[in-house]
Design brief:
This protein has 293 residues and is an all-alpha fold. Among the domains are: 113 residues, Endonuclease III, domain 1; 56 residues. It has 15 helices and three strands. It has a three-stranded antiparallel sheet. A hairpin with a 4-residue loop joins strand 2 and strand 3. It is globular. The termini are far apart.
């Protein structure tokens, strides 16, 4: 890999990076952490307005920790995978109580927080504290697969190897490495995309092993496309919508009206109860957690 790759990519990023609210001057490590929780499997366009409302309402971990879980789930809205909201609430509580309301900067301390995995811990260290930490998501894996390995796609995740690949590309300087990590992600999100990569506009095309090889077709294992319509995930969302839109607990028939398949509906309601996203009250009403009025 030629030494010019970081320089070219950073120059491109300085000029073309999207104006995302969590990238703006003054964003705290807490703001970065909130964005990373929200962005998991959710498009930027849906996250941005919710993130801005969230940060205006709960600008610190202690502010979120003091909020009722029902309010947190309502504010999460349609972002999907609502367990992330409860995990973020739990992480905020730990930060407020054990870290003096300051998000840790150490990767190992971040990993000890509820709901924080390898990717999120390194993203917060890099983007929240400008630390040199390899940050690997789907976009980064695809860029490295093409530019470094000459493959059309990255194939199944390989945690250790993926981190080593990213680590090898990072500049030595902390701030430059953090910005380079963001630039790699940006390149994969807007140019080096999965379907029709825009190689003609790529700032590192001269360094790309895949392009040099004639863009050979990827023939390795792929992930199945996830459908949504009719899945338990959709049903769970419908049931939560009923509770989020209600001013308080609702009777069982309100939930029954949300989905016609009784077997699937009951299975999903039980899973929501098991996940702590819904509570059943003594009088056979249902509510968001902690909401009993």
């Amino acid at each position: 890999m030629v030494a010019s790759l970081p320089e070219r990519l950073l120059r491109w990023f300085d000029e073309h990076a999207r104006d995302l609210p969590w990238r703006r001057e003054g964003t705290t490590p807490w703001g970065v952490m909130v964005s990373e929780f929200m962005l998991q499997q959710t498009p930027v366009s849906r996250v941005a307005p919710v993130w801005e409302e969230w940060m205006a309402r709960w600008p610190t971990p202690s502010a979120l920790a003091a909020a009722a879980q029902a309010d947190v789930l309502r504010a999460w809205g349609k972002l999907g995978y609502p367990r992330r909201a409860l995990r973020l609430h739990a992480a905020a509580t730990v930060i407020a109580e054990r870290h003096a309301d300051r998000v840790p900067s150490d990767v190992d301390e971040l990993l000890a927080l509820p709901g924080v995995g390898s990717y999120t811990a390194r993203a917060v260290a890099a983007f929240g504290y400008r630390r040199r930490a390899p940050v690997v998501d789907t976009n980064v894996r695809r860029v490295i697969a093409r530019v470094v390995h000459g493959a059309g796609d990255a194939g199944p995740p390989r945690a250790t190897a993926d981190l080593a690949d990213a680590e090898a590309l990072l500049p030595a300087d902390d701030a430059a490495a953090a910005r380079f990590s963001a630039a790699l992600m940006e390149l994969g999100a807007v140019l080096c995309v999965s379907g029709r990569p825009r190689c003609d506009a790529c700032p590192v095309r001269a360094d790309c092993a895949w392009l040099t090889a004639g863009r050979p077709e990827y023939t390795g294992p792929t992930r199945p496309v996830q459908r949504f319509a009719g899945t338990d995930r959709q049903v769970r969302g419908r049931l939560l919508d009923v509770l989020r839109d209600a001013p308080g607990p609702v009777p069982r028939d309100a939930l029954d009206a949300a989905w016609s398949d009784a077997v699937q509906r009951d299975r999903c309601l039980l899973s929501l109860l098991d996940d702590g996203l819904v509570e059943q009250l003594d009088d056979v009403r249902f509510a968001l957690p902690g909401e009993r009025h």
